[in-house]
What does this fold into?
Amino acid sequence: MADTTPNLNLPFILPSQALKHVTHNEALLLLDTLLHLTVVDEIQEPPALPAYGASFIVGTPGSSG
It folds into this structure.
């Protein structure tokens, strides 16, 4: 796992620092996703190797892969 979130570089709490690091880090990932919502591309099919944190709009007719 990285030390920061992918978009905003919010620092995660490392496992040795606190017992509640999992809950805190999940909240940071949600904040990172919601506050920095950007779309990479509009596509018809899911990408083969999407970058971590990348968002796509599925055009019509879209497929679930």
Strands lie at 41-43, 56-58.
